[in-house]
Amino acid sequence: MSRLRASLTPYALLFPGTLWLAIFFVIPTVVMLSLSLQSGDVVNGYAFTFNWHSYVDGISTYHDQIIRSLVYGLASTLIQIVIGFPVAYWIAFKGGSRKSVYLFMLLLPFLVSFVLRTISWQFFLSDNGLLLGPLKSAGLVPQDFHILATSAAVIGGLAYNFLPFMILPMYVALERIDPRVLEAAQDLYASKAQTFLRVVLPLSLPGVFAGVLMTFVPATSDYVNASVLGGTSNTMVGNVIQNQFLINQDYPTASALSFTLMALLLVGIFAYARALGTEDVLEVAAR
């Protein structure tokens, strides 16, 4: 009896998580896949007809928004790496006994709603807001200069909102580096640059890899930043999917666009993992 209980314990521990994924991920994904292959309308109802035209029509009609979303997601991810790595490095190696305080300060904005944080940036970047108002009054920028309704505003909003998701994995990877490894590099007459490039950077790749996954995917599929900070020329595919689902009620097109975006993101992730060398990253993470 005890042996049977011991063999069933792992499955019992997995059951809640598996049930959660089945209800809130697998079933909705299957339903959305079914919707993407249906035809009809809200009035007359939808029928499953293997209608692949939703994919063709969605890509041909909204290819600009799809490409723009990928570009915005990539640009914001690169900005987060450039900003986040020095922050994570400083906290890991220079934070001392106050590391927890710095991490709490980093996560403090997340106590506020995602939408409210984005709206606060709208006020900050408005034509006469806290940033541009004084600059225009001082004559440092033209009166017709604006940041809102531009690609820069949307990309900046994406980078700001998802930045902690980039910093935290990199911090964890950097914090695990044994200081004796750095001392050994210095004993072998490696310069600070060589130590960073040959020791710190390779050992931090698992954190960079995880950070990119946690930021590129939600940033590419986001629609809040484009709605609040962007204009009509900054629409992302997330905005299109939202409108098709909630306003136009064109469920097949919305579902087809969702699966198209999912496929593109998976291809990008696998290509990124292959280029980075997933096996090498996993070997480093296991040390």
UniProtKB/TrEMBL annotation:
Protein keywords: Cell membrane, Membrane, Transmembrane, Transmembrane helix, Transport
Topology in the lipid bilayer: Multi-pass membrane protein
Domain ABC transmembrane type-1 residues, every copy: 66-272
Main localization of the protein described in the UniProt heading: membrane
GO biological process, one term: transmembrane transport
Domain of life: Bacteria
Compartments (UniProt record): Cell membrane
SUPFAM superfamilies: MetI-like (SSF161098)
GO cellular component, as recorded: plasma membrane
Transmembrane region(s): 12-35, 70-91, 103-125, 145-174, 195-217, 253-273
The family this protein is said to belong to: Belongs to the binding-protein-dependent transport system permease family. CysTW subfamily.
Protein name according to UniProt: ABC transporter permease
Organism name: Microbispora cellulosiformans
